[in-house]
Amino acid sequence: MDRLRQRADFLAVANGARANSAAFVLQGRCRDDDGPIRIGFTVTKKNGTATERNRIRRRLRELVKRLDVISMRPHSDYVLVGRRAALTCDFATMLDDLRSALHRLERQPSRTASRHPN
C-alpha cells in the first residue's frame, strides 16, 4: 500500500464514489494501471487547531493499518477525509464504519465529473 501525495491524485479521487460516516468521508476511484492500492488522508482547517487535525489524521492512519487489505479493491485510490467527530468517536466503531464504507463503495458506480463542453 502506498500513500497519495500529489494534489492531482486527490482531485481525481474526489470525482469518484464516496461513502459518508460520522467520523470521516471515504472517497474511492479505480485506476487503469497495475499499481498498488494508494491511500491519502485529508483534514481541513475547519476541524480545529493543528494539534487536533494531526490527532484526527493519526487516528485515520491507524484505522487503515488495522484494516485488512483484502477489503480494498486492487488498483484503486482511496482518500479519507477526516471530520471533527473522529476525535471523540470510539475506535472500534470507526473501524466498523470504515469496513462498511468500503463495502458501500464497491457497490457504488464511479461518479464522473460533469464538465461543460466549452
From TrEMBL:
<keyword id="KW-0694">RNA-binding</keyword>
<protein>
    <recommendedName>
        <fullName>Ribonuclease P protein component</fullName>
        <ecNumber>3.1.26.5</ecNumber>
    </recommendedName>
</protein>
<dbReference type="GO" id="GO:0004526">
    <property type="term" value="F:ribonuclease P activity"/>
</dbReference>
<dbReference type="GO" id="GO:0000049">
    <property type="term" value="F:tRNA binding"/>
</dbReference>
<dbReference type="InterPro" id="IPR020568">
    <property type="entry name" value="Ribosomal_Su5_D2-typ_SF"/>
</dbReference>
<dbReference type="InterPro" id="IPR000100">
    <property type="entry name" value="RNase_P"/>
</dbReference>
<keyword id="KW-0819">tRNA processing</keyword>
<dbReference type="InterPro" id="IPR020539">
    <property type="entry name" value="RNase_P_CS"/>
</dbReference>
<comment type="similarity">
    <text>Belongs to the RnpA family.</text>
</comment>
<comment type="subunit">
    <text>Consists of a catalytic RNA component (M1 or rnpB) and a protein subunit.</text>
</comment>
<dbReference type="GO" id="GO:0030677">
    <property type="term" value="C:ribonuclease P complex"/>
</dbReference>
<keyword id="KW-0255">Endonuclease</keyword>
<keyword id="KW-0378">Hydrolase</keyword>
<dbReference type="GO" id="GO:0042781">
    <property type="term" value="F:3'-tRNA processing endoribonuclease activity"/>
</dbReference>
<comment type="function">
    <text>RNaseP catalyzes the removal of the 5'-leader sequence from pre-tRNA to produce the mature 5'-terminus. It can also cleave other RNA substrates such as 4.5S RNA. The protein component plays an auxiliary but essential role in vivo by binding to the 5'-leader sequence and broadening the substrate specificity of the ribozyme.</text>
</comment>
<dbReference type="Pfam" id="PF00825">
    <property type="entry name" value="Ribonuclease_P"/>
</dbReference>
<dbReference type="GO" id="GO:0001682">
    <property type="term" value="P:tRNA 5'-leader removal"/>
</dbReference>
<dbReference type="InterPro" id="IPR014721">
    <property type="entry name" value="Ribsml_uS5_D2-typ_fold_subgr"/>
</dbReference>
<keyword id="KW-0540">Nuclease</keyword>
